[in-house]
Design a protein that fits this description.
The protein is of the alpha/beta class and about 400 residues long. The protein folds into two domains: about 270 residues, Alpha/Beta hydrolase fold, catalytic domain (Rossmann fold, 3-Layer(aba) Sandwich), CATH 3.40.50.1820; about 100 residues. The protein is about 35% helix and about 20% strand. It has a nine-stranded mixed β-sheet with strand order 1-3-4-7-5-8-9-10-11.
Length: about 400
């Protein structure tokens, strides 16, 4: 069982999801192509050939979604809600809710979004690709997380599973009464959880949190997770042993995020080389750059390009503290009570496939469908994951 690191957080019935922006988007353009306003995942490791493949993937995505579309016109509203900060205190957070313009709503889909770098990529500021699932007759809510949206000035506690999952759960709890208030209450009380990459791991943490504390408020129907770093310690080990990672900016983001979330008090200078520290706030904490842009600014090919010797040595006392926190923030520590579909591409260079292997070993014997195959790199895997989810809904 995971040790309790923060005070018990008690949900208060915050009545309103307060809308600050709204709009309507057509999923398909007049020529049948996917609306370019819908923001797809940026592949941090894509080169030119992969980009061409991704274009084909976009076409396939549009065909798969629109082939069984319930409503082509989607209403999307950005709003704030009262959630919980890292220490359990109240905080105003933001996110986006997407709905079919007309007709009944089947279920609420709770999405945990993937890794982003720039604030303009956050759900409340854009049309997240997972929002496409609303076209099949669902309400889709996507939280920004602490550190994005209305809290963009804050450090994002990246991969700190407790606080990030709580942001997602808080939004779902706030959105339910709002949907009832506007006359779009789902036909079923059961919720569906969806997430890819960072969102895949967060989705598992959301499932764990709901099972333990909110089972009656948010009864789970099914969980879809893909390409997630479920075992952060194994991910760290993989990066160090191979001296490389498919997403260089994730290294400083994880160290800072877990340090912030668990209040470890670590000195980043013990982990990162001066050239990265000099630009850390500009490249990462300004939220001006996307993941791909940060990777380009870092110009790092290997882990040792950015990390110190001590930072790469988990026997070093400070690194050992970080490593322990990585284990605590992994999500392979509970028994799922609801069916799960778990997707991972064996070609994924961003989130090592070892995460899927560890998850399969840990969850073996439970109601989980494992879909592991050669689905391309991380970004292509995301497209194929969304297609598969849409086909199963």
């Amino acid at each position: 069982m995971m040790a309790c690191r923060h005070p018990q957080m008690v949900f208060e019935d915050f009545e309103t999801f307060k809308v600050f922006a709204s709009g309507e988007t057509q999923v398909a353009m007049a020529d049948g192509t996917l609306n370019p306003e819908i923001r797809l995942m940026e592949d941090p490791s894509a080169d030119d050939p992969d980009t061409k493949i991704a274009s084909t993937g976009v076409s396939n995505l549009a065909t798969a979604i629109l082939g069984s579309v319930f409503c082509n016109s989607l209403v999307h509203v950005s709003g704030t809600y009262t959630g919980h900060d890292i220490d359990g205190s109240q905080i105003t957070l933001s996110g986006k809710l997407l709905l079919p313009k007309e007709g009944p709503v089947k279920n609420l889909i709770i999405v945990s979004h993937y890794t982003i770098g720039a604030n303009y990529e956050c759900p409340s500021e854009t049309f997240p690709m997972e929002g496409l699932l609303a076209a099949k007759g669902y309400a889709v809510c996507v939280a920004d997380y602490i550190g994005f949206g209305v809290t963009a000035s804050r450090v994002h506690p990246y991969m700190h599973t407790e606080s990030t999952a709580r942001s997602v759960v808080d939004m779902a709890l706030a959105v339910k009464p709002y949907l009832k208030h506007i006359g779009r209450e789902p036909e079923s009380d059961e919720v569906i959880l969806v997430g890819y990459s960072q969102g895949g791991s967060t989705t598992m943490a959301v499932m764990r949190m709901i099972q333990r504390r909110f089972a009656s408020e948010l009864p789970i129907k099914k969980v879809y997770c893909g390409g997630g770093p479920y075992d952060l310690a194994a991910t760290f080990d993989s990066a160090i042993s191979q001296d490389r990672t498919g997403i260089p900016c994730a290294i400083p983001m994880i160290v800072q995020g877990v340090n912030e979330g668990d209040n470890l008090g670590l000195n980043l200078a013990d982990f990162f080389k001066p050239y990265l520290l000099e630009h850390y706030d500009e490249w990462i904490n300004s939220k001006h750059y996307t993941v791909k842009q940060i990777n380009m600014l870092m110009k790092a090919q290997n882990v040792h390009d950015v990390m110190t010797e001590h930072g790469m040595d988990k026997h070093n006392p400070n690194t050992a503290r970080l490593y322990k926190a990585l284990m605590i923030n992994s999500v392979l520590d509970f028994r799922p009570q609801h069916p799960i579909y778990m997707f991972h591409s064996k070609d994924d260079e961003t989130v090592p496939f070892v995460n899927a292997q560890r998850a399969e070993k840990y969850f073996k014997g439970w109601d989980i469908t494992f879909d592991f195959d050669h689905y391309g790199k991380h970004g292509m895997g995301c497209l194929r994951f969304i297609i598969k989810v849409s086909q199963q809904l």
